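Predict the assembly for these two chains.
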Amino acid sequence: MDVLATQMPRFLQAIWLTIWLFALIATVSTLLGLSLALFVNGPRGRRALSVYTWIFRGLPELVVLLFCFLALPRIGIDLGAIGSAFLAFVLIGTAFHAEIFRAGLAAIDPRLIETSRSLGMGRMLMLRRVIIPQLARISVTPWATFLAGNVKMLSLASAVSVGEVMMVTRQSLAISNDPMTLILFAGAVYAAMASVVMVAELLLSGLMRRRYGPINGGMT
Amino acid sequence: MSATDGPLLEVAGLEKTLGAQHVLRGVDFAVNRGEVLAIIGASGSGKSTLLRCLNLLIRPDNGRILWQGREVGWVQNAGKRMPARERDLLGYRTQISMVFQSFNLFPHMTALQNVMEAPVMVMKRPRDEVRAEAEALLEKVRLSHRASAYPHQMSGGEQQRVAIARALAMRPEALLFDEVTSALDPELKGEVLSVMRDLASEGMTMVSVSHEMGFVRNVADRVVFMHKGRVCEAGDPKDVLANPSTPELQAFVRSVTD
């Protein structure tokens, strides 16, 4: 317990770093993934997007992380520890989000699109008033599921010396003979952060289901 | 927008191929202002495709669509006839709005929001003015008490009446109805048909694809019978349905009057 108490200020700092790094990565990768899903059209663009998402969904996170931290500096792109972790997780997250939203778009009832056109809506208006609200409804669960998993994935960033929770845990382990307490504590921190995302998803999807009914309004 | 002497809407030689299917094989007819035109025909005869060509949700491959005497859907560009861009069709679509078989209300909007959506967002009219008009339209379709209900909380008949109010909210010159009672239980068809009868008696121009022979006979001014992508027979519904001259319409009339 002693080591946990003495290391607590560093842990709190690390928790804070983990939270904002996660929030930043989640925001940027969601917006990029959404934009790719919405605006990459045409056979050539679609194919390029598929190749990108195939690669970055397939590669181990650690490989991408080490590539950004160790290999990129060799070609003159040195982003530092946090910068590399940010880039790596955004590259991976964007690939997943693009696929999540692409699948969500495909699930929107085409009759709602036809109706929007019949009401004289242009593409951007339709996007804002019909497609994005429907997509939010359809994609909130897979989106949050990926993000909840992504929280704990951030522990990998300790491998490239980002001072997040796992990093402090490993440093504390080196000066302590109480691995049980330290590891359980680190686990609880990650589980708590992931739980926040999961509970938020439960509340949000429950609220939308109660208010808007089944997905696509239960159209027959 | 002055009324012209000719028909409000006129189509000539309309052709459309969807995939391998030659759905429309040269369709001609006209709709006068204030007229109720019913389109009947067996499924697969091209009725729904034809209706979607009228407001250019589907682009015909060939033929002409004249709206108040002016051609829509095509533009002259350097002497060549080119399909108009989608964004140049949006204004036209607000003048000829459509009611669908499956209602297609926006699930994330209340009845009132559904009705207000196009006038506020598409036509950029002031929200307060639109709200008053939308409330009046909901009253007209006898749904004032459902203004704040979401589509999933309403019956099919209620949803369809909201959809009619939504179509009317754009103050269109004509309404297109695509089998609007086909998805409804028998006891709910009546409330939708009675709203349509009201509109007809107010002089609204309507083109209705319908399987409701009672509506066709009693409300429509003229009926067009489609068969294999062509207008097979047309005229006053009372005459045409009572004395069909083609074997195709004779067979169709037999099959729907059970």
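The mean pLDDT of chain A is 93. Helices of chain A lie at 2-39, 42-58, 61-71, 80-107, 110-118, 123-153, 165-174, 179-212.
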